[in-house]
Amino acid sequence: MEPLLRKLGLSTRLERGVVTLSTEQTVCEKGKQLTTEQAHLLKLFGVRTSVFRVSLRYLWDKETGDVKEQDPPIEDAEPAGDSSSEEDDEEMED
Description:
By secondary structure, this protein is an alpha+beta fold. The protein is built from 3 helices and 4 strands. The protein has a two-stranded antiparallel sheet. Strands 3-4 form a two-stranded antiparallel sheet. A hairpin with a 6-residue loop joins strand 3 (55-60) and strand 4 (67-75). The chain is rod-shaped, with a radius of gyration of 21 Å. The model is unreliable at 80-94 (pLDDT under 50).
């Protein structure tokens, strides 16, 4: 793991077999485009950078052939274990 982190731009060292950052580093900043290396690091650290949601606005009935507008749209349920919030955004900026 340590050579991969170095390859991705982090200054790391091994201390008693534990990968340790040599200095505090910012992986990315909110609002700026990610590089391939930054995206790979975020994936390794388990950080989700976006959420994809789908809303059902129209429903087609196979039997009648009717298309009905859903009012209000049927929202996709929040994924289990998703605790993303503004607090998470603030943590990423630190």
